[in-house]
Each structure stands twice: as structure tokens, then as C-alpha cells.
Amino acid sequence: MFQTIIASMLEEKIGLSAEAVGADTIAKAVRRRMTECGLSAGDDDQGFSLYLSRLRSSEEEWEKLVEAVVVPETWFFRNQASFSFLKGYVRFEWLPEHKGQVLRLLSIPCSTGEEPYSAAMTFADMGVPEEIAKGRFHIEAADISEKAIQKARIGIYGLSSFRGEDLSFRDRYFERLANTDTYKIHTYIKNMVRFTKGNLLDSRILAGEKPYDIIFCRNLLIYFTRTAKEQVIAAIDRLLARDGILFVGHVERPLISNSIASLRFVWIRQSGVFACRRAGQTRQRQSDSPRVSVPGLRLSSPEKMPVSNETQGIESAKTQVRSSLLSQKITSDLTVSSLDSMLDEAQKLADRGALNESLELCQRCLNEDPFHSRTHFLAGVIYNAVNDEARAEEYFNKTVYLDPNHYEALSHLALILEHRGLFHGAARLRQRAQRILQREGT
Ligand SMILES: C[S@@+](CC[C@H](N)C(=O)[O-])C[C@H]1O[C@@H](n2cnc3c(N)ncnc32)[C@H](O)[C@@H]1O
Fold first, then answer.
1. What residue's CA is closest to ligand 1, atom 25?
2. Per residue in 206-221, pLDDT tens?
3. How many whole angstroms from 387 Cα to the centroid of ligand 1?
């Protein structure tokens, strides 16, 4: 009975579902706290009764119990694809559209800080000078656990926080503490994040704060009751900017699909990325306005672009593969959605040389879904065809950010770099494209 009462308190106050975390986990935490309070956790009810009174009257004991039941599991760059997407989104969408504004990112729950620090490192990797980055990126992070927040503020991490395959960020942004397996985060990254303690179920959490352009709320809702999930989604709805993006954990996507659909959020359709944005909030952007007027030009194929002698043979062989991959993709996607049909129409227009009309359709597709990699790619190909290399590069870059395995976009980018004499960068892109082909062939 007492266990049930305590489980209900946890449900009501912090959203924790006994079913999701396991009644056993809660029972163990309660017994541990009772022992630490010097109360008998035996079969008689007296110890439980005393503990319940203490829990009801002492804020301090309540917090200790919360610390004992929460799951602080986290690590740097958890779900790497989401951070790659974040980088592309901020660099190619957000910054150009919000000139002079401060990007506000919230990580809640942030646990011991690995998630907001990963966002800070992602921004630092964009190469924005430190002085400018300070004014341009504002990262806030909150968690119900005081212990977790304190650890985050200290910024020293053991090996379990570094789990991915690519740990190169550790060399860039951490210092190994002598004779230990612990790493201290650089002050520059540490200072990019502001930590606070907060309960997502508190209806006034972060009240009065300006809206956030990006919210990470990952790996919490899995532990929550249905009612608590709805409360969190309402809080996110209140805190997220009108054109904001919400990142969730991969197992949470199906759990909240219905709730967010009713708030008109749509999922970002990119493999490995678990994020959504509000529908119908995209604006016509200057950088996406159709700007070519070269009637009668057909879509360029990469072999028509200037290439260096030594790569020409390889390129024409690759071009055949590229063309077949592209046409396969187009035919297999034909009936997938109206967006894809619209893009197919844009492709046909481009093939007929109606480049302005094709770009107009691309623009409409991007208004519907600014993260549609096929549209960015087609726009890149069209700009390439009219020798607007800078704009073509911009669209191919976006394509690669949205779809890191886009062989054709990588190959086009390699050619553009070669054209500018940047052979080292071109070779790196080519190697990357080659690895994709090899993977697809195995
Ligand atoms: C599994 S961690 C997730 C950390 C990070 N978002 C991630 O995905 O790696 C879950 C965190 O949720 C926090 N938490 C649990 N209930 C909460 C609540 N009601 N409000 C805020 N944070 C909460 C816990 O303290 C814990 O640190």
C-alpha cells in the first residue's frame, strides 16, 4: 500500500510511470532511502508509515528520493545523426534566415550535461569565431536532478560519456586529466551552456523566457505516464518558437506522434534523425528564390563540367552509375507522396529545359518541406547547369547535410572544388563518395 502511494506521488509530481520504470525499481529506491534514514524496511508497516510522513513533510527527503529513482543515462553525441542534422540546419537554414539574431537552444532534461555540450561543440565546429559565437548561440539546459546539474557544471567526464565510434571531438574540446581516464571540457564550451534545475511538469517552468528555436527533449517521455507526456508536450508547445524544431529520442517518436500531430508538428524525413517542426511555418526565403533565366538549357550532367584531366576517365564511369542511381530513385519514389510527385514534375521541367519553372516548383517543395534532400539536390543541379557555382555549392552542401550518403551531391561538390583548384578538399569528398559506392555495392 505504502509503495503504491509513493509511486502515485512520483507519477503526479515528476511524471514517472511505475509501469515504465518498473515497480521494483521504485521499491528498491524507497528501501534504500529508508535504510539511509535509519528506518526499518522490514515486513511491518511502521517503517513505511514513518517514511511516508517524512516524505510528505521534508522537501529534502523528497529530492533525495527523486535522485534515487531518476535514470541519468546519457553520453556525448547520442544519436549522432541528429547532431549532424542540427549543424546543417543551423548553418544553412537558421543563420541565413535570422541575420543578427541569437539562436536559443534548450536541452531538457539535460542530465549530466552531455547533450547540451554536444550542441555547443556542434556550433563550435561550424567555425564561427569564439567572440561571435558567444553572442550568437544561447544554450540553456535543465534537469530535475540537482546532482546531475552539479556534475554538468563541473564538466569532468569518465569513459562512459564517450561511446560513439568517432571520438575526435574529445581531442578538440577536452583535456585529459593526468593519470586518469577522465576528461575536462574546455572552458569555452562550458561557458556556452547555462544550467538550471527544473521540473518539466511544473506548469511555470521557464515562464517568462523567450521562445527557443530548438528544443532537445530526449529519453524522458519513455519513462512518463500518458498524462505527464501530454503535460510535457504542452510545455514544449509553449516554449518552442513558431518555426522551432524539436528533437526527441528514437523510441519516443511513436509514443508522441498522435499528440504532436494534433499540434501540427511534422516529422523531419531524414534517416536516423528524430526531430519534428511545426507545419506551415516555413517562409519564402530570399536565398531560395528562383533566380535563373536561361531558357532552353537542359540539366547538366557532371561530365559536362570542367574536370581535371586525371579525373576525367573515372568521372565518366562514375557518371553512368550516378545517372542510373538517380533515375532509379526517381521512378521508385513516384507514388510516395504529393511532394515527391511535385518534385518529379520539377525534374521533368528541368529535363525539358524549363529551368525557371522547375525552380519555382522546387521552391514550393521547399516551402512544404525545407528538409527534402531531393529538392535541394535538384536545385543544385539546375544552378550548376547555369554555371551559378556558388549557389549550386550551397544546395549540394545542404543535400549532403540532409543526406550524408548522397553520392551524387558529393561528386558534384568534389567537381566544384576541383574547378576552384581545391584539390585536397575535392579528393576528400571523392573518397567519401567512393566509400558510399563501395558500401552500396556490398
Ligand atoms: C535518460 S536521461 C536523458 C538525458 C538526455 N536528454 C539524453 O537523451 O541523453 C533522463 C533525465 O530526465 C531527468 N528527469 C526525470 N524526470 C524529470 C522531470 N520531471 N523534469 C525534468 N527532468 C526530469 C532525470 O533526472 C534524468 O537526468
1. 145
2. 999 999 999 999 999 9
3. 50
